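Quarterly update, task 2.4: nicotinamide-adenine-dinucleotide-bound model.
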Amino acid sequence: MSAAARPALSVVPSTPLDSIAGLADRLRRTFDSGKTRPLEWRRSQLRALKALVRERGDELVEALQADLHKPTLEAWAADVGQVTTEAAMALRKLKGWTKPQRTGFFPLGRSRIVHEPLGVVLIIAPWNYPVGLLLTPLVGAVAAGNCAVLKPSEVTMRTSAVLGRRIPEYLDPEAIAIVEGGIDETHALLEQRFDHIFYTGNGRVGRVVMEAAAKHLTPVTLELGGKSPCIVDHDVDLKVAARRIAWGKFMNAGQTCIAPDYILVHESREQELVRELGAAIHDFFGDDPKRTPDYARVVNRRHHERLSKLLASGEAAIGGQSDPEDCYIAPTVLRGVAPDSPIMQEEIFGPILPVLPVRGVDDAIEFVRRGEKPLALYIFSSSEATAEKVVGATSSGGVCVNGTIFHIANPALPFGGVGESGMGAYHGRHTFETFSHKKSVLSRGFRFDPKWMYPPYGGLKTKLVQRFLK
Ligand code: NAD
């Protein structure tokens, strides 16, 4: 569907500001009543999330297609379906996650760690995977027994409208609220006191969120982005590497936080890699990627304009076509890109892939280390030692060796950034932990209570303690 054919909603759906005021306090009353603590309540909300996806998944996918021209498979596998997978896992594991953890022997009492819900949490999501990035954090928040306010992105307004309509139908409205809208509505929320803020989006707004949170000493998780590099060594099967890179880059038209942002390839293989990338793009999207249902669009005219300017940073070896009316930019591979060109100064977040030759992996490591810490790093090499060297010498939220994106799919791996790409992590049990306080509890009996432990200490006791501790 072209952008022109995608009917705009007449107004961006937004929640009236006067009903946002006092929302956190209203939910805190529910939390204080103890309603959200029993495992049965948590299970009911997890089941309701699964039902929402089962019964309204098609409606959400339709909205995603209208907002982003998202391919149906991607909408299910990488966005809406994530909610089912995470909720099903939480339902299976809830009993184990919430069980107090006993620690090893400690002579002064029995010790355990209790996972306590934090209270009322705020989850703010962006537009690129607008369902999954809003509702998978919610899975952990309700599994941990919290109340939550959800704030979807206004940029994908049709998806926001469906979520705004369906969330109150499926989830307990006394404990879970959704607020639609943009900057004003988000600020109206940020003024209130939450017990945790989970924000996914860009680093500029991440700073706004952290500043607002500081006022109430509210802890934050910041899931941000950045330029995720992809290093390609001289010794790899380029056909496979190119396919995996092109898939990770051009999924959702490059609007994925962990999409390979640029490639650093061994100079001896640059030409061949570009050729294989071209072949992979052709295999995926055919002669005219504009006509396939399997290729998404840039989210709006503003981002299209931003990306169109970045096309000038190099020479389009593949693609380069652009149509503002349809928010379309062809899958593009750029060569001849200078490291100080505009496209290398910001996260691209679109379907343009610069390929920069390097003399070897050491140069690539140095290049990466000069920039901010990325959210993801990709290394393609046939040598395990080389891959390990890159893992050890660079810092990033996560790494995928000889692949792209898939490290996010394993719920056992915490997903999150480091430095400029964010703080905190989630997925699977890690989401439950993010929304829990690990409370230490030590219990003593009455029988063992030797008098010598108490004052007066006297010289002998002090000497004994000193001898014991030196
Ligand atoms: P966005 O514009 O939808 O903003 C995200 C949220 O912040 C929205 O709910 C929006 O209403 C709110 N917001 C926007 N401007 C604000 C302001 N001035 N004050 C208060 N709230 C404001 O999304 P975006 O930031 O363009 O998202 C893209 C970025 O997110 C990219 O950098 C991408 O890498 C990153 N991202 C990270 C992850 C991750 O998991 N780490 C996932 C997806 C996207």
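Highlight for this quarter: Residues 80 and 132 are 6 Å apart (CA to CA).
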